RNA sequence: CGGGGAGUAGCGCAGCUCGGUAGCGCGCUUCGUUCGGGACGAAGAGGUCGGAGGUUCAAAUCCUCUCUCCCCGACCA
């Protein structure tokens, strides 16, 4: 490709509304443009990157017997009504009506359509297992898109769905996808870690997320350097060790204490001069729970120790709730509690589900609210002063907490979820009536798995990790071009132009992906653009070199400059491209799923 | 949805307090000189000042409403 013809523009300054590094660089390098909040267009260079990533995805999915298909973005609402998600999912699901008044949705994922498709085609266990995937547009009307391509509304996803005759077959296949994902990310030059994750409303029994570790990520993971434990904060556990427990301490009598204008844990601990761990935090939530087809709201009173944070995912799962929301002040008063001074002692238990974290029974003599404005209670003891309905782990693991397997301190890190894999089970196949006949002639719902990777997030994460003050530093496997050819020709040096043109066609013929800077620009402009675009190899042809029969090769990720003689240039470039590609591929992680 | 910030030329910004009909840098066009890390000179093109309404002789500037974008939080099957 000739730069003089390329549809793009580099920017010296990043647009003011981009403040995430990858977003700034993508805009400055002319890879993408923003159309609206969370809506982007890809320019030629950006699309080349996207296509390369998708080629890697295809190769790896095909290698585990995946078959590519394409499903529609616009789908009839009736499919979503059959699985119930039309009713369960809120405003994230974009809905529209066609000219005839038929309800449609913009696909945010494709379980409904693919399950119906598979159900229609697969009739016999002999056709199983099968893996279908597509690389397609998704639309999720996120309340707050952010960070360039990190969190968007319209995006491209590689989504795969596997269908199995039984759980054993899924259990056998799932680890293959797990490894294929490491292959994809590794080949794209991106380090990821796989963590256990919440299955959420997707249902199913096991799920993993593939996280690119970066500060701009929205998820928090807890890692153990000692034993290798790693989990998303949503599901991470930790040891509430004996040092945390004061179970042996004798219970003291209840005592009211005046605490005017002390309505936070921090203020309370400060006011009474006690550690936060000697306080009880009261949280008021309203859960939407479905029971026997009835949907009802349940007031939930949660008690956790003052130094801990509630993990809403854990609580949601414990309650099997569809949704959790904070309670309103009136609702809190209605059950006999006082916002800011809440305590489980003396509330209207008939309407309240009282959940305490399992550390609370081992934490005697806590300070809790007195359900009276400006007052707290000392020496509140679970079991003596109130009896919980549920005693379970509902707090979030945090940095420094002891690892659940080896008790070494956990480390909290941020990451971007670039992929996920789920064992779905039969949730969708049952709802969509996707069954087959087994060996005994019985009609059985298919067992499913589903597997996603976001193309844009992968690109953004790769840039986030590979850049310097001058621009992007692409892994060669996903770079828009492998080589940036700089011609330093001027009007007085036609021999430089001739040489550059010749080298350009030689490299192209040899299959090297060349971006040829034939623009009438000064050297500095070309070098700076080469750095900004992050092309892995840069080959410079100038008057000096032409005289000596050499071109200069510099790698974006290294300092040295090498001189290559023109008569062997194609071979040498090819060798470097191969070596760089091999270096990326050598870092692919092989990690058997435990 | 709550809190904060911003919309003026392709990008970055000034002008607004105190109304008088829009400016700077980069980029873009033409010519000349230059040419190995973002050149110089000269001449140009480009703006419904986010939108609507109002006040006024006069609105980028004051008032009201509204739209959009960004950040933090809530949310994220």
What descriptors fit this protein?
15 helices, alpha+beta, single chain, YbaK protein, RNA-binding, BirA Bifunctional Protein, domain 2, 5-stranded mixed beta sheet, 9-stranded mixed beta sheet, 27% helix, 594 residues, Rossmann fold, 3 domains
- The secondary structure category is alpha+beta
Helix-residue proportion: 25-40%
Please give the alpha-carbon distance between the first and last residues.
46 Å
**Beta strands, count:** 31
Sheet-strand content, in percent, reads 25-35%
Q: Looking at this structure, what is the CATH superfamily of the largest domain?
A: Bira Bifunctional Protein, Domain 2
Q: Which runs of at least 5 residues are low in confidence (pLDDT < 50)?
A: none
Report the CATH topology name of the largest domain.
BirA Bifunctional Protein, domain 2
Mean pLDDT: 93
What secondary-structure arrangement, pairings included, does this model have?
Elements: H1 21-28, E1 32-36, E2 39-42, H2 44-63, E3 66-68, E4 74-76, H3 77-83, H4 85-88, E5 95-97, E6 103-106, H5 111-121, E7 130-139, E8 154-164, H6 167-187, E9 193-196, E10 206-213, E11 219-223, E12 230-232, E13 255-258, H7 265-272, E14 280-291, E15 294-305, H8 312-319, E16 321-326, H9 329-334, E17 352-357, E18 366-372, E19 375-380, E20 390-392, E21 411-425, H10 427-431, E22 435-437, E23 443-445, E24 447-454, H11 455-465, E25 467-468, E26 471-472, E27 483-487, H12 494-509, E28 514-517, H13 523-533, E29 537-541, H14 543-548, E30 550-555, E31 561-565, H15 569-585
Parallel strand pairs: 3-7, 15-17, 17-20, 27-28, 27-29
Antiparallel strand pairs: 1-2, 4-6, 5-6, 7-8, 8-24, 9-10, 10-21, 11-12, 11-21, 13-19, 14-15, 14-16, 18-19, 21-24, 22-23, 25-26, 29-30, 30-31
Helix pairs in contact: 1-11, 2-6, 2-11
This protein binds one RNA strand of 77 nucleotides through helix 13.
């Amino acid at each position: 490709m000739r730069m003089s013809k390329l549809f793009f523009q580099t920017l010296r300054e990043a647009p003011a509304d981009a403040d995430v590094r990858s977003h700034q660089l993508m805009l400055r390098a002319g890879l993408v443009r923003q159309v609206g909040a969370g809506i982007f267009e890809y320019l030629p260079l950006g699309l080349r990157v996207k296509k390369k990533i998708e080629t890697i995805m295809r190769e790896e999915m095909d290698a585990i017997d995946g078959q590519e298909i394409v499903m529609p973005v616009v789908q009839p609402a009736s499919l979503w009504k059959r699985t119930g998600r039309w009713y369960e999912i809120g405003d994230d699901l974009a809905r529209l009506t066609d000219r005839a008044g038929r309800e449609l949705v913009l696909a945010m994922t494709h379980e409904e359509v693919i399950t119906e498709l598979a159900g229609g085609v697969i009739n016999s266990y002999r056709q199983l297992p099968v893996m279908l995937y597509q690389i397609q547009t998704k639309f999720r009307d996120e309340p707050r898109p952010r960070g360039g391509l990190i969190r968007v509304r319209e995006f491209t996803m590689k989504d795969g769905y596997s269908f199995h005759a039984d759980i054993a077959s899924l259990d056998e296949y799932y680890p293959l996808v797990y490894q294929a994902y490491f292959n994809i990310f590794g080949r794209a030059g991106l380090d990821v870690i796989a963590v256990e994750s919440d299955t959420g409303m997707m249902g199913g029994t096991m799920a993993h997320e593939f996280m690119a570790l970066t500060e701009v990520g929205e998820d928090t993971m807890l890692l153990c350097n000692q034993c290798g434990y790693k989990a998303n904060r949503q599901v991470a556990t930790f040891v509430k060790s004996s040092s945390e427990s004061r179970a042996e301490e004798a219970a003291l009598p209840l005592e009211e204490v005046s605490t005017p204008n002390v309505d936070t844990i921090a203020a309370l601990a400060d006011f009474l001069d006690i550690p936060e761990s000697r306080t009880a935090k009261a949280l008021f939530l309203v859960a939407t729970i479905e029971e026997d087809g009835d949907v009802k709201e349940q007031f939930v009173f949660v008690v956790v120790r003052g130094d801990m944070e509630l993990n809403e995912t854990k609580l949601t799962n414990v309650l099997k709730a569809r949704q959790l929301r904070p309670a309103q002040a009136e609702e809190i008063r209605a059950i006999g509690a006082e916002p800011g001074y809440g305590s489980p002692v003396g509330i209207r238990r008939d309407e309240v589900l009282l959940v305490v974290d399992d550390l609370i029974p081992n934490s005697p003599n806590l300070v809790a609210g007195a359900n009276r404005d400006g007052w707290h209670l000392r020496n509140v003891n679970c079991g003596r002063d109130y009896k919980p309905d549920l005693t379970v782990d509902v707090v979030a693991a945090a940095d420094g907490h002891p690892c659940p397997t080896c008790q070494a301190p956990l480390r909290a890190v941020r990451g971007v979820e670039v992929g996920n894999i789920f064992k779905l089970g039969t949730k969708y196949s049952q709802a969509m009536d996707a069954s087959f006949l087994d060996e005994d002639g019985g009609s059985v719902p298919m067992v499913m798995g589903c597997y996603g990777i976001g193309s844009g997030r992968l690109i953004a994460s790769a840039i986030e990790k590979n850049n310097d003050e001058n621009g992007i530093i692409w892994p060669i496997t996903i770079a828009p071009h492998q080589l940036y050819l700089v011609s330093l020709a001027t009007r007085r040096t036609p021999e430089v132009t001739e040489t550059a043109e010749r080298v350009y066609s030689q490299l192209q013929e040899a299959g090297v992906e060349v971006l040829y800077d034939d623009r009438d620009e000064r050297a500095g402009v070309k070098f700076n653009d080469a750095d900004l675009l992050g092309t892995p190899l840069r080959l410079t042809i100038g008057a000096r070199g032409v005289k000596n029969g050499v071109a200069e090769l510099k790698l974006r990720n290294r300092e040295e400059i090498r001189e290559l003689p023109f008569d062997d240039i194609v071979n040498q470039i090819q060798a470097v491209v191969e070596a760089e590609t091999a270096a990326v591929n050598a870092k692919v992680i092989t990690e058997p799923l435990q």
